[in-house]
């Protein structure tokens, strides 16, 4: 009796990346040439610009393209030949590690605002102190990412629900494991962005300390919307073909 084949989960951005990579290998996009803009690719493929952004970052990681913020995305000149097809979409072992950054952020938006509201009502004084310590640590280090994660996990720990806290922790683990998310941060997260995030954290902390669940939810939602907006900043390629 024949056996069933494992069913792989194919991410949309991975399907887009494989399609663009195939056209690069076929010579439709010449080495050294500029790809169509994100807007044009989104229109041609009938997908969101967020999915195009994730696909282009994945292609850069694989060596197909080079992203030049402010100019566009170019087919790489480096190497004797292009990489073979990645096959990532069929790799069951990677099915949990290649979730796109925007999917992760949207999941966080479903959970973390309510988590902040619950923490405003449920967190103990010691848990609020842990949230405050993580917030203050973020402004005192050259590596704010660790304190950013500690801040959000401390809020989750203070929400009074172990399942919710575990869900938040898992989303952060998936975020840390995402090479696409990491590369996207390299382009769009800088000192100015961390300063904005710190100010947003301050508003969340103040609301939790005031035991104001409505304000805490709104502050967390606004913070996550801010992250989405920062990661969706234009590559600067929309005028590249005009």
Structural class: mainly alpha
Approximate helicity band: 55-70%
Distance linking N and C termini: 59 Å
CATH fourth-tier homologous superfamily of the largest domain = GntR ligand-binding domain-like
In terms of DSSP E residues, the strand content is under 5%
Return the average pLDDT rounded to an integer: 86
What summary fits the major beta sheet?
2 strands, antiparallel
Principal-axis shape equals elongated
Question: Could you characterize the architecture of this molecule?
Answer:
It is a single chain. The protein is mainly α and 242 residues long. Helices cover 62% and strands 3% of the residues. The chain has helices at residues 12-25, 38-45, 49-61, 101-122, 125-138, 144-157, 162-177, 179-188, 191-209, 213-231; strands at 65-68, 72-75. The chain has a two-stranded antiparallel ribbon with strand order 1-2. The chain is elongated and about 60 Å long. It starts with 11 loop residues before the first helix and ends in an 11-residue tail after the last helix.
List the helices and strands and how they pair.
Elements: H1 12-25, H2 38-45, H3 49-61, E1 65-68, E2 72-75, H4 101-122, H5 125-138, H6 144-157, H7 162-177, H8 179-188, H9 191-209, H10 213-231
Antiparallel strand pairs: 1-2
List keywords for this structure.
Arc Repressor Mutant, subunit A; elongated; mainly alpha; two-stranded antiparallel ribbon; Four Helix Bundle (Hemerythrin (Met), subunit A)
Quick structural gist:
The chain has ten helices and two strands. It is mainly alpha-helical. The longest helix is centred in the middle third of the chain and has 22 residues, at 101-122.
